[in-house]
Amino acid sequence: ATFKAATKVTVADGELAFLSAPTKLSFGEELKVSAKEQTYPLENLEGQLKVQDTRAVKGSWTLTAKVDKVLTSGTGHTLPNAIRHSLGGNTTVLSDVSTKIYQHTNTDEAPFSVSDTWTPEGDGLSLTVPAGAARSESYEGTILWTLQNTPDGE
Asked: In this predicted structure, what is the pLDDT of residue 11?
């Protein structure tokens, strides 16, 4: 390219970035210990799962999640494979292997909230507790979210 003297050209590639991720997810308080398998939808989250794409050429991105620390009670009892993710009618167990949670291509630079697409009986996170597996305790775990630039269709 040829530019006249005194022409200023600024090339801004931008970035694909997390703006925020939930600091706490809650599937309810005082959940009953049941003799049957129970599934509880996400009731509350503190902070949104939000992505912003300021790249000049918008491309597809993929959000993955994996359980970094399994749900564990204060006494050390665990609930492995209890956190599930649903998208378009397909439900996947979140484990220690990264699982695709969402794929999107932004059309502008506005922040996109993945968690705003979640509904109690549809897409999003849930907790499934097998019959007799839970104890009357509080459980904590950690989910690792990863944002990737991905070619369309992958």
From this structure: 47
> Is the confidence at residue 101, as pLDDT, over 80?
yes
Q: Residue with structure tokens 């996170």? A: 125
Structure tokens at 102: 């969402």
d(CA 30, CA 13): 49
> In sequence order, what DSSP letters do the residues of 22-64 get, joined into one string?
-SEEE--SSPPP-SS-EEEE--EEES--EEEE--SS--EEEEE
CA angle 136, 140, 144 (to 5 degrees): 150
Which residue type, as a one-letter code, is found at position 39? T
How many secondary structure helices (H) and strands (E) does the chain include?
0, 13
Helix (H) or strand (E) holding 142: strand 139-149
Instruction: Give the whole-angstrom CA distance, residue 72 versus residue 88.
Output: 29
Query: pLDDT tens-digit profile of 130-154?
Result: 998 888 899 999 999 999 998 765 5
